[in-house]
């Protein structure tokens, strides 16, 4: 079986207008282990190209700084933690990122936990291709009992340390969303008024496409096309956690890359969770992070999780059931695809 490299939450970019219009500039690249698609509307090719190159330069910098298992600032930090040493002269950016994800971990009740890199590595997701493993329950129990958390990370000036040497930080559930926010700022600094930035399905909108909003499609997690579509307005971001890209099959069981920090096992039975985030300075990062607690948490706890994290718009696809908040249901249009016909829609009020 061919496994997809890295995590990408597949969205289908849908344009109602013809993509051949000369005022639409599109550029596709491979960064963060996935496809990056930058679309700019209403600017000269020269200006669009300059702005796009600035964004791609920033993406490459972030990729090299925040990579979870190839040499980076983050791997240097993790090596220091594993040796019970302080990591000195950390960049101001890395410190602010650690502070933000620490707050998000705590707010999520530790369902979103970037400190469980040892578990992620054990399951084989710290590599480009995934090989099926037979899980060793005793080993997983040990990894869980080590109880890594960013609560155990200390920051003093430019020095980062941890009271737990088993903290191994993995920002795979945050970095692409953070990159969206950086890209949005760069494009706006270039006075780009209309653009869509898509990092493997994490998407943020600037302005609109001509006289209509940008349109995006939500991937069918058990099909090859979009299951629904919606308008993405200026400043809004959208992101998904799914079990259909970074995973392996073993004895007929699907093991995806989203690990439950309390059990140590990949989450099963949830196909995908999509969140739509209103404009905010960190809308991109939130669109990346906030799908995880809903994906991992118990079905009966979703409403409480959403209320605590102020998630107003979400769509959850499971076997034969699609759940959505009323505000999300009002914004999306389901498409006539086979898997949609098999699902019952439940509205969370």
From TrEMBL:
InterPro entries noted in UniProt: ApbE, ApbE-like_sf
Leader peptide range in chain numbering: none
Main localization of the protein described in the UniProt heading: membrane
Assigned EC number: 2.7.1.180
Membrane topology type: Lipid-anchor
Domain of life: Bacteria
Keywords: Cell inner membrane, Cell membrane, FAD, Flavoprotein, Lipoprotein, Magnesium, Membrane, Metal-binding, Transferase
Cofactor(s) needed by this chain: Mg(2+); Mn(2+)
Binding site for Mg(2+): 173, 288
Entry note: cofactor: Magnesium. Can also use manganese.
GO cellular component terms, semicolon-separated: plasma membrane
GO molecular function: metal ion binding; transferase activity
Subcellular localization: Cell inner membrane
Catalysed reaction, written as an equation: L-threonyl-[protein] + FAD = FMN-L-threonyl-[protein] + AMP + H(+)
Function: Flavin transferase that catalyzes the transfer of the FMN moiety of FAD and its covalent binding to the hydroxyl group of a threonine residue in a target flavoprotein.
Sequence similarity: Belongs to the ApbE family.
Designated name of the protein: FAD:protein FMN transferase
Organism from which the protein derives: Candidatus Methylopumilus rimovensis
